[in-house]
Each structure stands twice: as structure tokens, then as C-alpha cells.
Amino acid sequence: MRIDIATLFPEMCETVLNTSIIGRAQKNHLVEIHCHNIRDYSPDPKHHRVDDTPYGGGKGMVMQPEPIWRCYLDVIAQSGSLPYVIYLSPQGKTLTQKKSLELRERPHLFLLCGHYEGVDERILERIVDEEVSIGDYVLTGGELAAMVLTDSIVRLCDGVLADPECFENESHMNGLLEYPQYTRPEVWQDVPVPEVLLSGNHANINAWRDEQSLLRTQKKRPDLLEK
Ligand code: ADE
């Protein structure tokens, strides 16, 4: 899978993309991620301008369409493929595990990060396939949302986690929250690990985990059960 990220602040993304599981996935050539500074595509050679005041008046600045368009064309030329374009926006559909599972099947994604008051509507109409939000709150730009989306997709790609079981039992994979986890020591501050987990009886352990998953979902996220 290839992911191209178009942003005015690539430095916000680079540490995240080069650390931990995403960094390792790139080193192992399981995913290819490229950040592009939209400013490099400005048609204004002197000031590298990428934004301007909104027509009709109003506060703030709007990102101009041409630098984004040029960045998009360059990505197509570099990669030789037409990416599926996602605009990170509080107006998009809220990201879910189901959406990440769907997006991991796309061979090439182009994530567009807006900033300031937004992006000229004409570029959105021209290139964007889908808008994605990471929740009903407003961030200063799409970069953090693009990192959340990238992380949630990359960890689902083949070979990225050592064992697919790593995510198969996770919260949200089956509509339920994950069961509680314990590690050494067996007793910590007088609190013992549940006995069943020490029993070695895997049928009992699985039954306990299923039950715990359901109980926790009832307690912490009853809305998931209603769905
Ligand atoms: N850009 C600003 N706010 C956002 C949000 N909640 N989700 C995705 N992109 C955003």
C-alpha cells in the first residue's frame, strides 16, 4: 500500500510516521508513505503563497486550489497510479474500525490535510472521493487526523503486526470492547490476577474473556450493544 499525505506542515507528521509500528512497516517495505509540502507546489515562485482571503468576506484564510492540484498531479506522475483521495475534515463521516478495514484494501491513498479556515471548495469537488472526520470536535488542521487514520490503517495491513490475532481480538473488531489483560506479577498490591487465567484451560479462558468483553461493553459503551 502507498499513502501520500499533502500538508502545509510535513514536520508534524514525520516523527509519527517514522516511529514504532508505522516506522517499522515502512522499513520492511510493507507500506510506502510520502509527505508532501503543499507550499512546494505554489505557483508563486517568490513567496510560495498557498492561501488567500475568502471571497465574500469573513475571517481567516482559505487554501488555494492550484497548489493542491499540482501536488495531486505530481503524486500521480511519481506513483503511476490514481489514488483514492480522502480529505480530513470535521464535516466527514466519523472514522470507525470498519472504515479502516475497508480503506486498508485500497492500494493507494492520498490524504489531504486542510488548515486555516479550510480549502477552496473547487479542489474538493475535483479530486476528493471521501471526507473523514476523527470525531465531533475541530482541530487546527487535518494533520493529527491524518496520523490517526494512517496509524489505524497501517497496523491492519498484512505483515505489519506479527500475528493477525494481535488485532483480531481488539476492541471494536467484533463490535465489542476487548477483555481485561494482566501480566506479571501474579499478585500486585494485594490484587491477584483472575484465577482462570492461571488455569491453563483455554476453553475456560476463552469463555471468561468473551463474558468480560460483553460485561465491559455493557458498562463502558452500552451504545455499541444497541447498534
Ligand atoms: N480537521 C479539523 N478537525 C478535524 C476532525 N475532527 N477530523 C478530521 N479532520 C479535521
Q: Total number of β-strand segments?
A: 9
Shape: elongated
Please tell me how large the radius of gyration is.
22 Å
The number of helical elements comes to 9
Low-pLDDT segments = none
How big a fraction of the residues is strand? 15-25%
Biggest beta sheet attributes: 5 strands, parallel
Strand numbers in spatial order across the main sheet = 2-1-6-5-7
The unique ligands bound to this protein are:
adenine
SSE pattern, N- to C-terminal: EHHEEEHEHEHEHHEEHH
User: What is the terminal separation in angstroms?
Assistant: 31 Å
Q: Whole-number average pLDDT?
A: 96
Structure characterization notes:
The protein is of the alpha/beta class. Helices cover 37% and strands 18% of the residues. It has helices spanning 10-17, 20-27, 65-79, 97-103, 121-127, 143-154, 165-168, 202-220, 222-226, and strands spanning 2-7, 32-37, 51-52, 62-63, 84-94, 108-113, 130-133, 187-188, 191-192. The protein has a 5-stranded parallel sheet with strand order 2-1-6-5-7, sandwiched between helices. A two-stranded antiparallel ribbon has the order 3-4. A two-stranded antiparallel sheet has the order 8-9. α4 (97-103) links the parallel β5 and β6 (108-113). The longest helix is centred in the C-terminal third of the chain and has 19 residues, at 202-220. It is elongated. The mean pLDDT is 96. The structure holds adenine.
Which features characterize this protein?
two-stranded antiparallel ribbon; 9 strands; five-stranded parallel beta sheet; alpha/beta
Structural topology:
Layout: E1 2-7, H1 10-17, H2 20-27, E2 32-37, E3 51-52, E4 62-63, H3 65-79, E5 84-94, H4 97-103, E6 108-113, H5 121-127, E7 130-133, H6 143-154, H7 165-168, E8 187-188, E9 191-192, H8 202-220, H9 222-226
Parallel strand pairs: 1-2, 1-6, 5-6, 5-7
Antiparallel strand pairs: 3-4, 8-9
Helix pairs in contact: 1-6, 3-5
Bound molecules: adenine.
